[in-house]
Amino acid sequence: MLINIDNGGTLTDVCVVDGSKVHYTKTLTTPIDLSECFFEGINKVAKDMYGEDGFIKLLQNSSLIRYSSTQGTNALVERKGPQIGLITDEEDLTERLQKTKAEKQMFKSLVGERVAHLTTSNDKEKMDISLVKAINGLTTAGAERLIVAVADPEREKQFKRFFLLRFPRHLLGSVPVLFSSEFTTDPCRERRIWSAMLNTFLHPTLSRFLYSAESRLRAHKVKNPLLIYRNDGASSRVAKSVALKTYSSGPRGGLEGTRALAQGYGFEHVLMIDVGGTTSDIGAVDNLRIVAERRGKIEGITTSFELSDVRSYGVGGSSIIRVVDGKITVGPESVGAAPGPACFGFGGKEATITDVNLLLGILDPDTYLNGELKLDLQRARQVIQENIAEPLGVDFDDALFLMQEAYAAKMAASFGDWVREGGETVLAAFGGGGPMNACHAAEVAGIKRIIIPRLAAVFSAAGISFSDVA
């Protein structure tokens, strides 16, 4: 029996595969404590399978528990993560790290001005003083995590020895430090440092939850370890997982499922679009091969690791729709699960496509999440009237259709470059918001054929079942 969990920014999907039977559910993501939605989702599906006391039975009967998450992806898309400080002995390193537009934008968001230069000297006392000054200066400037990138790996090891003497873990507090030469053996220095910075940014999103969840599973006498599903399609234990490889790990499950669809229906070129709460994730299967790169990219930044070519865009079911300078904008900022779209009734004050779909009758207010969450039509109407219709000076119905058009255009732009001429491309639409929104976007992009799988709502979680274990 396989338990697959796909943790999204707004909803968490749980899919249990028991031979030919599939059981699944959704639960609201709890961003403050991800273990709550993790265990709540398992508990919900266990009740469906075994009744009220089925939780322990499901856990102990499972042969694998695999977990994927878009939390890191969403944090990067929204630029919500730790402030990073960079320590180096090369004056031109920051320039070399910012050769492209994507690199300049990412560096500005992750590091900004938090760069300290070490003194070039063979005098150990001067090296020691230089390192202390750099660390103190960056932490004072707000750096929450530090990267040390020294040109000579042996010299970097020397700085590490000074660091461990001067700043034992219990004295430095909660400011982790990563030495770039230890993270990966990639011979390309710039690529290695970028990988270290991205990993450092993504790491805290999951680290606390994963070790907590593993501990709670052991308390329930679960023998098999929690496995982290990765972007390369394999799964590994928590202690052996690299945060950077969890980037778009959920959509990789969707790609595995998309490949199975392509094989079953004889499609040559299939685009997948997995529409979650915060992002839409795009990938491709070409002649039954998942498109991947030896040196994978994250938002246009080349890394040291092989990654599937999944691109995440800030356009999801909870992406904020606003009027800026007289025009409708969509995302990348999201309301997430808390407070969520206005129609959730949790105090949300921003308009989203979920509110639009509710008011257009695409969503049933009484059956959302199997009726567990009653959607608030009045609240959805109020935020759209105040935030969209009135600023644009249009009536309410026109506002709804303008929002729908803007959303479709933003989504179509995310996968337009992938579409092949001649009608060869098929779009596989899934995720919580995929089937509701993809048809309009496909029309804009010129795609004439769309497939919506039966398990569309939890398809990325279900797709993990087609993957290997490392």
Strand-helix topology:
Blueprint: E1 2-7, E2 11-18, E3 21-28, H1 34-50, H2 55-61, E4 64-69, H3 71-78, E5 84-88, H4 93-96, H5 101-110, E6 115-117, H6 124-140, E7 145-149, H7 153-166, H8 169-172, E8 177-179, H9 180-183, H10 189-219, E9 226-229, E10 235-237, H11 249-265, E11 269-275, E12 280-286, E13 289-290, E14 292-293, E15 297-298, E16 301-302, E17 307-308, E18 311-313, E19 319-324, E20 327-334, H12 353-359, H13 377-392, H14 396-415, E21 425-430, H15 434-445, E22 449-451, H16 459-463
What would you note in describing this structure?
The protein is of the alpha/beta class. Among the domains are: 2-76 and 205-246, ATPase, nucleotide binding domain (Nucleotidyltransferase, domain 5); 79-202, Rossmann fold (3-Layer(aba) Sandwich), CATH 3.40.50. It is built from 16 helices and 22 strands. Helix 1 (34-50) crosses helix 2 (55-61), helix 6 (124-140) packs across helix 7 (153-166) and helix 13 crosses helix 14 (396-415). The longest helix is centred in the middle third of the chain and has 31 residues, at 189-219. The radius of gyration is 23 Å and the shape is globular. The model has no long low-confidence stretch (mean pLDDT 90).
In short:
With 470 residues, the chain is an alpha/beta fold.
* End-to-end gap: 18 Å
| Strand elements, count | 22
Radius of gyration: 23 Å
Unreliable segments (pLDDT under 50, ≥5 consecutive)? none
Per CATH, the class of the domain at 79-202 reads Alpha Beta
Strand order of the largest sheet: 3-2-1-4-9-10
Strand-residue fraction? 15-25%
In the CATH hierarchy, the third-tier topology of the domain at 79-202 is known as: Rossmann fold
Dominant shape: globular
User: Helices and strands: which structural class?
Assistant: alpha/beta
Sheet bearing the most strands, described? Answer: 6 strands, mixed
Give average pLDDT, whole number.
90
